[in-house]
C-alpha cells in the first residue's frame, strides 16, 4: 500500500509517493501560481511512471499551511476530494513542520508585506506555535545557533530548502490523522475577520 | 438512447454548488451552499473570504449531492465544472475538485463557461428553440447573446461599465440598504412611485449597455433634495431607479428582437429574479412579440447553481468538448465559440 504526500503551500508543487519503508518517487516542480494547472497532471505522471494505480494508494498526507493562501487550498482541495469522496485516509502536517523535517530548525517563509511565517521545530515537534512575525522581529532571532530553513534571501542569506520529499517520510510519526475530512480547513494565521470592511 | 448523466460543480462567486443532471434537463440532485449571510456581514463579496468558505464546503456539498441522487461517481458519464469567468480563488476550488474527481474515476472532464450555464438553466423549463436571443443579467454580467444553434454563442451586446446587478448593489449602498441591494430595491420599489427623474443611460453603440451613470444620477438627486431641504423617499427612489434601469435594459432587448429573426427569447441570471423585470418581459413579449416564444426561468434557476452547469455540460459533452488535466480556472473568459468548443482528449 502506498501514501501520497502533497505540498503546494509555497512555490513548489511537491508530490511524493511513499510505501511503508521509503520514498519511492517524487515530483518537485518549481511552478509558483501554476500548481493548480499541473497538480493532477503530475499526480497522474507519478503513479503511471511507477506503474501504480490509485486503488493501491491508501493514504494522503497534505500540508495545511501556513503559506500562500491559494497554494495551501490547492493541495487541500485535492486531498479533501480524495479523502471525502474517493475514500482515502488523510493526514496533515504543518507546512513549516515539513520544511523543518527532523532538524533543530527555525523555518522562515515569506508571508509578504515584510513578514514571514515562522516555525520553530526540533525533531519534528513544534517548540513554539507557528506564527507570523515582521522581518525586523525575525532579525533579532537570527543569532541563535540553529539551522535556518526557507526564504533566507529576505535576510541577506542564501535561501535553503531541504529535501522535502524525504521530510514527508521522516515525519511519518507526526502525521495527524484527520477524523472528519469535510471540516478540515487550512491554517492561515490570519482570520477572515480582518477582511471586514472598516 | 442511453441516458447521459453529468455531475457538475460551480464555484465562480459566492455559492459552492454541485448537481447531478440526467440528459441535460432532469435534475437528480441539486445542492447549493450559499455564503450570502457571511458576505452580508462584510458588505459585499470579499474574494479571500469567499475562497475560504468554498474550501470548507466543497467536499460536503459533493457528498450530499451524490447522496441525494443516490449515486456514486462511477455511475456518472462526465464531470462538468465552471472554468470561468468569476473570482479566481473561488474558481480554483471547483476546478480542482472536478479535476480530482475526473482523474480518480477516469471520467471525461467538461469545461463550462458560467454564462452558458445561465442560458441552459432555461432547458429545465422547456426546450430551447433556435435561433434564440438570451438576456443575461447578474451582479457580474449584462449581455445579449444570440444563439443560432445549440452551443453557438454570439455576444451582440454587453455592458460598457457596470453590470446591472452591480448598479443595484451600488445604489443600495448609496441608499444605505443592506447588501445585496438588488432584492431590497426590488421590494422597496413596490411601495414607491417613480417620481424622481433619472436620465436614461445613453450608449452610442448599437446593443451595448451602460449603468455606471445611474448611480451618479441617484446621488445627484439625493444631494439636490438635501440642498432644497426636501425629504428623500427611499421607496420612490428605488422605484425610480428600478424603472430607469429596466427601461434601459428593455430598450436594447427590443432593438435586438427587431433586428434579429429569433424563435425564442430567454431571460437568465440573478437579476432575472427581479419581479418587475419578469413582469416587464411578460407584458412586452405578449404585447409586442406575440409570435416569439419566451422563457422566464423559475427563481431557483436564476441564481448561481450547478444544475445549470450540468445542463450546459451535457450539450458540451455531446459535442465532444473535453478538457485535459492541465486546464486552469480563468477569471475572465470570453463567451466565444473558438475557446468554448475546444475538443481536447
Ligand atoms: Zn452567475
The CATH topology of the largest domain in chain A is what?
A: Nucleotidyltransferase, domain 5
Order of helices and strands of chain B: EEEHHEHEHEEEHHHHEHEHH
Question: Mean pLDDT of chain A, as a whole number?
Answer: 94
Shape of chain A: globular
- Residue ranges of chain A: pLDDT <50 for 5 or more in a row? none
Judged by helices, strands and strand pairing, the structural class of chain B is alpha/beta
Instruction: Please give the order of strands in the largest beta sheet of chain A.
Output: 3-2-1-4-5-10
Order of helices and strands of chain A: EEEHEHEHEEEHEHE
Per CATH, the class of the largest domain in chain A reads Alpha Beta
Order of strands, main sheet of chain B, comes to 3-2-1-4-5
CATH superfamily of the largest domain in chain A: ATPase, nucleotide binding domain
Radius of gyration of chain A: 17 Å
Structural features, described:
The complex is a heterodimer of chains A (198) and B (345). With 198 residues, chain A is of the alpha/beta class. Chain A folds into two domains: 2-96 and 163-183, Nucleotidyltransferase, domain 5 (2-Layer Sandwich), CATH 3.30.420; 100-161 and 192-197, Nucleotidyltransferase, domain 5 (2-Layer Sandwich). Chain A is built from five helices and ten strands. In chain A, the strands form two sheets. A six-stranded mixed sheet of chain A has the order 3-2-1-4-5-10, with helices on both faces. The longest helix of chain A has 16 residues, at 69-84. Chain A is globular, with a radius of gyration of 17 Å. The model of chain A has no long low-confidence stretch (mean pLDDT 94). Chain B is an alpha/beta fold. Chain B has eleven helices and ten strands. Chain B has a five-stranded mixed sheet, sandwiched between helices. In chain B, strands 8-7-6-9-10 form a five-stranded mixed sheet, with helices on both faces. In chain B, strand 6 (132-137) and strand 7 form a beta hairpin. In chain B, helix 5 runs parallel beside helix 7 (212-227). The longest helix of chain B has 26 residues, at 234-259. The mean pLDDT of chain B is 94. Classes of the chains: A alpha/beta (198), B alpha/beta (345). At the A-B interface, helix 1 and helix 2 of A face helix 2 and helix 3 of B. Bound molecules: zinc ion. Zinc ion binds next to helix 4 of chain B.
Amino acid at each position: 500500500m502506498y501514501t501520497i504526500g502533497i505540498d503546494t503551500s509555497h512555490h513548489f508543487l511537491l508530490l511524493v509517493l511513499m510505501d511503508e519503508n521509503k520514498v519511492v518517487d517524487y515530483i518537485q516542480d518549481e511552478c509558483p501560481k501554476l500548481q493548480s494547472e499541473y497538480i493532477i497532471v503530475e499526480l497522474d505522471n507519478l503513479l503511471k511512471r511507477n506503474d501504480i494505480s490509485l486503488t493501491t494508494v491508501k493514504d494522503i498526507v497534505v500540508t495545511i499551511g501556513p503559506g500562500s493562501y491559494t497554494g495551501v487550498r490547492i493541495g487541500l482541495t485535492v486531498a479533501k476530494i480524495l479523502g471525502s469522496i474517493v475514500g482515502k485516509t488523510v493526514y496533515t502536517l504543518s507546512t513549516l513542520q515539513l520544511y523543518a523535517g527532523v532538524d533543530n530548525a527555525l523555518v522562515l517563509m515569506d508571508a509578504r508585506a515584510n513578514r514571514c511565517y515562522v516555525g520553530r521545530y526540533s525533531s519534528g515537534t513544534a517548540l513554539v506555535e507557528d506564527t507570523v512575525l515582521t522581518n525586523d522581529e525575525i532579525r533579532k532571532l537570527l543569532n541563535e545557533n540553529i539551522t535556518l530553513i526557507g526564504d533566507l534571501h529576505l535576510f541577506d542569506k542564501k535561501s535553503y530548502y531541504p529535501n522535502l520529499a524525504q521530510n514527508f517520510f521522516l515525519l511519518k510519526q507526526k502525521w495527524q490523522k484527520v477524523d472528519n475530512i469535510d471540516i478540515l480547513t487550512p491554517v492561515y494565521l490570519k482570520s477572515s475577520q480582518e477582511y471586514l470592511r472598516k | 438512447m442511453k441516458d447521459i448523466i453529468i455531475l457538475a460543480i460551480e464555484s465562480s462567486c459566492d455559492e459552492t454548488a454541485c448537481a447531478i443532471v440526467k440528459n441535460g434537463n432532469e435534475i437528480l440532485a441539486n445542492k447549493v451552499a450559499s455564503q450570502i449571510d457571511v458576505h452580508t456581514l462584510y458588505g459585499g463579496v470579499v474574494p479571500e473570504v469567499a475562497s475560504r468558505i468554498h474550501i470548507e464546503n466543497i467536499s460536503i456539498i459533493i457528498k450530499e449531492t451524490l447522496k441525494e441522487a443516490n449515486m456514486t461517481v462511477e455511475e456518472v458519464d462526465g464531470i462538468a465544472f465552471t472554468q470561468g469567468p468569476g473570482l479566481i480563488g473561488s474558481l480554483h476550488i471547483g476546478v480542482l475538485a472536478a479535476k480530482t474527481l475526473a482523474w480518480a474515476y477516469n471520467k471525461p472532464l467538461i469545461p463550462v463557461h458560467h454564462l452558458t450555464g445561465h442560458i441552459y438553466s432555461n432547458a429545465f423549463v422547456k426546450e430551447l428553440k433556435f435561433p434564440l436571443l438570451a438576456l443575461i443579467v447578474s451582479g457580474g454580467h449584462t449581455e445579449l447573446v444570440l444563439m443560432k444553434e445549440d452551443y453557438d454563442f454570439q455576444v451582440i451586446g454587453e455592458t460598457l461599465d457596470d453590470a446591472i446587478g452591480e448598479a443595484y448593489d451600488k445604489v443600495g449602498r448609496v441608499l444605505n440598504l443592506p447588501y445585496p441591494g438588488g432584492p431590497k430595491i426590488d421590494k422597496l420599489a413596490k411601495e414607491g412611485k417613480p417620481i424622481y427623474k433619472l436620465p436614461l443611460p445613453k450608449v452610442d453603440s448599437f446593443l451595448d449597455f451602460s449603468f455606471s451613470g445611474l448611480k451618479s444620477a441617484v446621488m445627484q438627486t439625493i444631494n439636490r433634495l438635501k440642498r432644497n431641504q426636501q425629504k428623500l423617499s427611499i421607496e420612490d427612489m428605488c422605484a425610480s431607479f428600478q424603472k430607469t434601469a429596466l427601461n434601459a435594459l428593455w430598450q436594447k432587448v427590443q432593438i435586438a428582437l427587431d433586428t434579429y429573426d429569433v424563435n425564442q427569447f430567454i431571460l437568465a441570471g440573478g437579476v432575472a429574479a427581479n419581479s418587475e423585470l419578469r413582469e416587464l418581459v411578460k407584458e412586452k413579449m405578449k404585447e409586442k412579440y406575440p409570435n416569439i416564444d419566451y422563457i422566464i426561468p423559475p427563481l431557483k434557476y436564476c441564481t448561481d447553481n450547478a444544475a445549470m452547469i450540468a445542463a450546459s455540460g451535457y450539450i458540451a459533452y455531446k459535442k465532444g468538448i473535453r478538457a485535459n488535466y492541465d486546464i486552469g480556472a480563468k477569471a475572465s473568459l470570453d463567451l466565444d465559440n473558438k475557446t468554448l468548443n475546444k475538443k481536447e482528449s
